[in-house]
């Protein structure tokens, strides 16, 4: 087993010594993302890249040595997409945090892959600009990881996902060459949309080191919130379907159940309400009378669908309000539940009209397999995140949890959905992806992967 | 040369006789799109496909015979992307005009590739839905062609291009297999974005036979127009850059010069104004006070940039108004100029801030090469369409026009632009695309093309 030291030595020859980690504890820490249940091995080494050239040199070395390169942002992924293989180098981009250019007139930002989503949002906000994609992890996840997984978030229901904001990128290919894909102009159709292909490819086709992201003006929106307190998951699901049928596009429409609220409250002590089974948190961001009328209509729909109570948030309601706390609870739900035990995170997307039925089936699945399933959802997109919690921690509950996980995927496909709405396939959804895509489309994936990464060194075994 | 009849005979064996055209006049008519100056040969036959199975059978036959298959919608392309090669079958999708499903609750439409853009818009409007992409050709171009070229249009400045509305598609691959790509849910990240890769690939990776397109609600917008009459291209260009710098996103921001206006007026007799060198046509579609305030700001910017006159259109101004006539003139500019002689259509996209400089260079190019260049532009996107007109029709003017065409491409790249904003590369922009993409990214294109279409039968020689 002379590979381990020789790879580390070779890496230290092309980088600074402190950029190459090999201690057992470090290898363990970088060996997997937040999908605890997905398989992983310890990598041969961890590299902390600081430039495009660093990434290029590492990939060239790995290509020569036949070693896998697995790019990693902050490791907040929920599908095992950044998990290490036994013959891999984990290439962390966390040190590539430069915001290179903010262009207010052209409304784009150029930033390195390791910039945290929220840091990017704050940097562009100072120039009066807005980067919409807002995964719940936005304070801890990187824009490179967001792009590699085509991350969604709360505002996608109106503003779209990461891919909708990627104009161009710098990518290190499987042979270590550094290329630019895409463009910085508002439009462009020169050649294939290879930048778009890289987005969501989970580091299997190239390593995104820098992104040019489209921005919107920060001004011109007014936030109004409508909170519905529902007696059951299904009545909340009905309200979601009704909002869609009414032709309303809210700027967020989130669902959170009492189990999530309780877990957050026990952790953070926010004093969250206990008088409902399920909450819907809706926002609209149109200005003036338009926004006001839209919020009224959502409130009416919530009431008609059976909401026990409907509350309205004032324009630009300050921090610390009940509504802000509820949105904070939504964002904290996942880490709060993780405190209770290993969480197997689902991420399925069904047609909006199928949300009530899907929620019904999730409850049935929880009962059938005797597991605890909490629910958060980007309900307005039909994107549900049943969180299967292994409170006991024994092997049996894990087996039952996995069975529930698989049942939810089958139900999602049965209802015309897709097995991953925004977390990516990684390792956890490989079977589901195969079922959804079918053999010929899988062949197409393999052919493209082989064309772009002929030796299969970039994050092999993930994404499809 | 027994190939010709044998191919036609073989095609007639797998289709109805009337679906296979071989008359010289028919071959000529289907042999090229609207890019008259791009090369083309007569195809071996023209097939009028009526189903996915028809397309599949034709591709299988062509694959076996080693014949090229060139898919074609309405033939309104402006880059030669649908032009025939000598060993090709032109596969027209014009008979595939079914709108299969309009789903108001999920806001999508499923339609065959041969549906005209405008027919689709009208069909979904009856259900209270809106399909935004609106190329100037929307009355005569198909959604399949729009997708194959990732067509833009007037509303892209606010609402994005065709790719932004493609959720999924049915594609016939190079081996004749029929596959589904993408999804019908609001979000989905399962596998690579192969639907997105097909969009804009100009029929070189697969033949799109059916599309699932995302829709928006039709209601909730109010149209307001602001027309600026400018003394020069540059002052109009300045106004465009100023609108962008002010953080305003209009729902359209079109530029049209006096030559275009005059050509349309002589053709259609609309009584268009003659008191300006260049017009900017802006619309905003926000409702109420918000829309009104936005239109005010645009009017102020136009005036400050040197507009001789600024006129405002009332909400929902009826047909036949001056403003409607001006937008009609914008849409008719291309066919109107074609009446004056062969038109070499440019389609470059530069940063919005570079619009004034690019317009200045275009004028200099016209003078230098002694050609007539009229200008229309989706100015708000920086997407310019200089129309080089060979009024004399002799070979010398064509040579000068081509030199001007190349100069404009060089200037566009020099200003940080892309050689095709929305028409596609086809044949006319191959050199420019090669310059823009660079050798390594071109290799990537070739590798993907070879992986997906190993025998190179799908529209070879186009797009990159």
Automatic annotation (TrEMBL), chains A, B:
InterPro entries: FAD-bd_oxidored_4_C, FAD-bd_PCMH, FAD-bd_PCMH-like_sf, FAD-bd_PCMH_sub2, FAD-linked_Oxase-like_C, FAD-linked_OxidoTrans_Type4, Oxid_FAD_bind_N, Vanillyl_alc_oxidase_C-sub2
Keywords, alphabetical: FAD, Flavoprotein, Oxidoreductase
Lineage top rank: taxon: Bacteria
Domain FAD-binding PCMH-type stretches: 39-218
Cofactors: FAD
Any Pfam family the entry gives: FAD_binding_4
Keyword Flavoprotein: yes
Listed GO MF terms: FAD binding; oxidoreductase activity
Family: Belongs to the FAD-binding oxidoreductase/transferase type 4 family.
Name the UniProt record assigns to this protein: FAD-binding protein
Natural source organism: Glaciihabitans arcticus
